[in-house]
């Protein structure tokens, strides 16, 4: 259980900035689309309670619900896919900017990307995981947004994975790594779930080395990888409905 600040101590002793970024579920952003008979049981959700606990033990928390709720009223596009439980590329970009706004004060040399850095091309696609469950991905079409950079590419992908994937988990899903040529920018390591794969294209162009680990929904500290990568920044990106996994598996081992 997360009952002490040992995790914060672990990163502080290594000089690593540690953040927990909480991804919202679709119904946290669009509660008005739920059936009329679905109502919250309390004014303080389990997510609120967990975030308060993390803060109480010295963990820096980025509550992505706030930025996505704010963007919901100002961005003309939907932030989540209509036929899938995941955010789309627009929602992921807003989450990236929110996380970066917390990182930059400690690392002023890091540049946040803006929508003006891209040509954003909407394109129809087959339906997502909910359409697949209904066996109607072709009939239930959805929209995706291609962020095409308007700046020169400076990053290269790292292949193959230098770390073994968990059993029965695809190596391509488990690890994604990028490095920037001749860069003195800080390094970042992000442990995430399926929501994290949508932010890869943005973070990779903001740091000298980006390491993404999807550790089969375990949200571990992955100390052996930390020892090798020696990141300046470590982010755990966790869906709010899966925060229990963070509590169960994120123990600091001496």
Residues in β-strands, percent: 15-25%
Summarize the amount of helix as a percent range. Answer: 25-40%
Computed CA radius of gyration, to the nearest angstrom: 18 Å
Low-confidence stretches: none
Cα-to-Cα separation, first versus last residue: 15 Å
**Total helix count?**
10
Oligomerization status of the protein chains: single chain
General form:
globular
Mean pLDDT level: 92
Overview of the structural elements:
The protein has 254 residues and is α/β, with parallel strands linked by helices. The protein has one domain (6-249). Helices cover 30% and strands 22% of the residues. A seven-stranded mixed β-sheet has the order 2-1-9-7-8-6-5, with helices on both faces. Strands 3-4 form a two-stranded antiparallel sheet. Helix 8 (200-203) links the parallel strand 7 (187-192) and strand 8. Helix 4 (64-72) crosses helix 5 (89-103). The chain is globular. The protein starts with 5 loop residues before the first helix and ends in a 5-residue tail after the last helix. The relative contact order is 0.17. The mean pLDDT is 92.
Task: Offer a few descriptive terms.
single chain; 254 residues; alpha/beta; 7-stranded mixed β-sheet; two-stranded antiparallel sheet; 10 helices; 9 strands; globular
